[in-house]
Request: fold
Amino acid sequence: MEKALKRYWPVFVLPTFLAFIIGFIVPFSEGIYLSFNEFTAIYNATFVGIKNYIRIFAEPDFLYSLGFTALFALVSLVVINVIAFSLATALTKSLRGTNIFRTIFFMPNLVGGIVLGYIWKLIFDGILAQFDTALNLDANLGFWGLIILVSWQQIGYMMIIYIAGLQSVPLDLHEASDIDGAGTWQRLRKVTIPMCMPAITICTFLTVTNGFKLFDQNLALTAGEPMRRTQMLALNIYDTFYSRVGFEGIAQAKAVLFFLLVVGIGLLQLRYTRKKEVQQ
Reply:
């Protein structure tokens, strides 16, 4: 059987490889090419060099969206991971009903982002109407509304990963730390967190990349209002492509930069946290 698998492995790999080329490599390569062109359709593209990339950084809205997205990713990274780790710590103790609470906290992750956005918009606007305001009237309210929505959706998922990490910590280490007289904070800092670094690496990577890629929730909850002050990068690219005639090449250049930004930040974060794993 093993010899047969080694002999016929191309038969199994080829369909997936072809699908990857057709579904990702070809469109991605064409997208990079189009980012150096002015076009309204693929067949009438005109090469303009790096003109589109230069024009991107002359757009105040794009630069603002970049800063807004970076701030959102940073705040959501801290909020989601701190709360998820705290819940995981509580739900790994010998308490009644922990499995029920795990299920309840995980359930929001099963709901689509666009649906959650509209649901939370109704909730927020219903509350804020009592104070004669709304999410789309105040950029600060819109920012924290997005933080609450995304945290509510993702905390349960990250919590499950942290629970798996916490359960992998040997009990002997906890017992040894108790014998040495370590307090709760010392045991958390010296034993629990170092042993959970693989889980922390995964969760920080997911929350950072998800924070930068956020689109559905942003579109449904605030749609970038007021005056594009809550518009994140993905929504800015979408609006540039579909709402501004003649800006298709600029939108494509933004998409390429967006891809490079997310990949670069993701790789830097992975390198940093994995270095921490090795040090432990």
Notes: The two ends are 41 Å apart (CA to CA). Residues 135 and 142 are 5 Å apart (CA to CA).
